[in-house]
């Protein structure tokens, strides 16, 4: 057997990581401005993370959700504190797509309705409803196609109002990334998120905040949606919450009452996954990483804005998009990687580079990246 070929790959094998550096099998060191796709939030092999996960593994790695799991309760308390929503409820699963799938399913259960509003440029994952709510027909299989998802232009308040006016009593929920990631780092306008909140309130629909990529402190607030100053009914998280361990979660508003049968999972919230997420939350709390991400991001963005050859710098905190003047960022990304030994990310907009480094990346790392980038521009 061999791996199913689903991605074009760089001819590289990463075998070790520490902080914001990774090493290949030839001993070559790379600066990770990509955070392994927004996943590495507290740095590779952080000592507290390694210790906590190892200790847990030596005790017990997994037992089923048919018994009480103390690390789940501890994580719910810590994430409630870290996210500033201590009265919300935690449901754990294993991937971003699964978190969004469950969030939309929950909205449908709670409202008894079928329609989901999603936006152009969105990416919510590859499971059935998550992919149906993703604006990329190329990844939607025939079996996933549905009339239950209504796509609207991103940021268009009028279109949203009209849709609610016409179909408000059929809409179960509105799902939106606080900052579109795959779509090329597009920040949702604060007034738009407020409008979603008020229309959902008026029509009894749920506001689902997809914080899979833009959450967990990356934007300088725990959820990037928080910049709008209104609460969502459900937040979904994955990527940075486990620093590489496959953990995902829903943070569910207190007004949503759980019922047996609504949600369920075998692996979600297991002891080892909780240990990983707890280690991340503890480091974030201890080291003030959310504020640090905001400050480092401001520095990076202001320096990037001084450079030539760039059409626009977008984002918040350490979720940054650099839109180049050229058609395609691939040659520049390749040069960064192979000549300057720096990882950055791409996006569905070909000329946009994504920066998604660990939240504790230093100013010196940023300067090293900026120097290399300047030379290539
Ligand atoms: C905003 C957003 N939602 C959902 C997902 C899906 O997450 P996963 O790949 O863990 O299923 C992604 C992945 O890139 C994402 O960026």
Overview of this structure, please?
With 377 residues, the protein is of the alpha/beta class. It has 2 domains: 14-46 and 289-376, Aspartate Aminotransferase, domain 1, CATH 3.90.1150; 47-287, 3-Layer(aba) Sandwich (Aspartate Aminotransferase, domain 2), CATH 3.40.640.10. The protein has 11 helices and 16 strands. The protein has helices spanning 35-38, 47-59, 70-83, 96-111, 128-132, 157-167, 190-203, 271-287, 289-304, 330-338, 363-376, and strands at residues 14-18, 21-24, 29-32, 89-93, 115-119, 149-152, 171-177, 179-180, 186-187, 206-210, 234-237, 248-252, 310-316, 319-324, 342-343, 352-355. The chain binds pyridoxal-5'-phosphate.
How do the SSEs run, as a string of H and E?
EEEHHHEHEHEHEEEHEEEHHEEHEEH
* Fraction in beta strands: 15-25%
Low-confidence stretches: none
The shape, in one word, is: globular
Number of domains: 2
Q: What's the mean pLDDT score?
A: 97
CATH topology of the largest domain, what is it called? Aspartate Aminotransferase, domain 2
Order of strands, widest sheet: 4-12-11-10-7-5-6
Small molecules (ligands, ions, cofactors) in the structure: pyridoxal-5'-phosphate
Given helix and strand content, the structural type is alpha/beta
Q: How many distinct helices?
A: 11
Helical fraction: 25-40%
- Give me the count of strands: 16
Q: What is the CATH-assigned architecture of the largest domain?
A: 3-Layer(aba) Sandwich
Terminal Cα span: 43 Å
Largest sheet properties: 7 strands, mixed
Rg, Cα atoms, Å = 20 Å
């Amino acid at each position: 057997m061999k791996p199913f070929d689903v991605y074009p790959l760089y001819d590289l094998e990463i075998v070790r990581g520490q902080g914001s550096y990774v090493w290949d099998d030839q001993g070559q060191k790379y600066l990770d401005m990509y955070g392994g796709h927004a996943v590495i939030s507290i740095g590779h092999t952080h000592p507290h993370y390694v210790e906590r996960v190892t200790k847990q593994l030596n005790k017990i790695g997994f037992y089923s959700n048919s018994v009480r799991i103390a690390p789940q309760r501890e994580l719910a308390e810590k994430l409630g504190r870290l996210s500033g929503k201590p009265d919300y409820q935690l449901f754990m699963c294993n991937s971003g797509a699964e978190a969004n799938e469950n969030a939309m399913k929950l909205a449908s259960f709670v409202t008894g309705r079928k329609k989901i509003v999603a936006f152009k440029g969105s990416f919510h994952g590859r499971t059935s409803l998550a992919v149906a709510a993703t604006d990329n027909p190329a990844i939607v299989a025939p079996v996933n196609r549905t009339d239950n998802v209504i796509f609207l232009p991103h940021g268009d308040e009028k279109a949203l109002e009209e849709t609610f006016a016409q179909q408000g009593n059929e809409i179960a929920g509105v799902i939106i990334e606080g900052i579109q990631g795959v779509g090329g780092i597009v920040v949702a306008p604060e007034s738009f998120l407020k409008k979603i909140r008020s229309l959902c309130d008026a029509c009894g629909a749920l506001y689902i905040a997809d914080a899979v990529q833009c959450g967990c402190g990356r934007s300088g607030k725990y959820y990037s949606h928080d910049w709008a100053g209104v609460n969502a009914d459900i937040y979904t998280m994955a990527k940075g919450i486990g620093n590489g361990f496959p953990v995902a979660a829903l943070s569910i508003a207190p007004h949503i009452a759980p019922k047996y049968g609504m949600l369920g999972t075998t692996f979600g919230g297991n002891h080892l996954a909780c240990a990983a997420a707890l280690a991340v939350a503890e480091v974030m709390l201890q080291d003030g990483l959310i504020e640090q991400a905001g400050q480092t991001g401001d520095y990076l963005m202001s320096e990037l804005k001084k450079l030539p050859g760039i059409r626009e710098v977008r984002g918040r905190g350490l979720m940054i998009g650099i839109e180049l003047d050229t058609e395609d960022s691939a040659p520049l990304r390749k040069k960064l990687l192979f000549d300057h030994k720096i990882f950055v990310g791409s996006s569905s907009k070909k000329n946009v580079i994504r920066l998604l480094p660990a939240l504790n990346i230093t100013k010196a790392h940023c300067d090293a990246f900026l120097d290399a980038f300047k030379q290539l521009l």
